[in-house]
């Protein structure tokens, strides 16, 4: 068994696609119309056949209060691995990304948390060697 799909609830799929590709560097994998919404996934360019991230519309009534509560408490929705948190932090800040947590040494990992502009906080992490 393996994980092949994970999702993140987004307020606007088109806006999310731009952010996740243009800013984060993911690559669009699937874009299939599904009525008013789309089956829209992105992947890492480092592993185009790997785990897909579904940019899931957050239209369900439970989505907004759930997402709002996580953001209010400073809890990231998910975490992406990077090789150098400080370098990613600086690159993304130059692109206008708002961070709620600057790079922080957490013992075995260095993390930072940013706003994905689509209603979520996302964490990036680097394992320390």
TrEMBL record:
It comes from the Bacteria. InterPro entries: Glyas_Bleomycin-R_OHBP_Dase (IPR029068), Glyas_Fos-R_dOase_dom (IPR004360), VOC_core (IPR037523). SUPFAM superfamilies: Glyoxalase/Bleomycin resistance protein/Dihydroxybiphenyl dioxygenase. This is VOC family protein. Residues 2-127 form the VOC domain. It comes from Amycolatopsis tucumanensis. Signal peptide: none annotated.
């Amino acid at each position: 068994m393996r994980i092949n799909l994970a999702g993140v609830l987004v307020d606007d799929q088109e806006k999310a696609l731009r952010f996740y590709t243009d800013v984060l560097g993911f690559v669009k994998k699937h874009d299939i119309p599904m009525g008013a919404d789309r089956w829209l996934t992105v992947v890492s360019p480092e592993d185009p056949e790997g785990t897909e991230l579904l940019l899931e519309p957050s239209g369900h009534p439970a989505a907004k209060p759930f997402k709002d509560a996580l953001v209010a408490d400073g809890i990231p929705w998910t975490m992406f691995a990077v090789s150098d948190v400080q370098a990613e932090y600086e690159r993304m800040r130059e692109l206008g990304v708002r961070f709620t947590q600057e790079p922080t040494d957490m013992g075995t990992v260095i993390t930072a948390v940013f706003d994905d502009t689509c209603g979520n906080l996302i964490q990036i992490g680097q394992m320390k060697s």
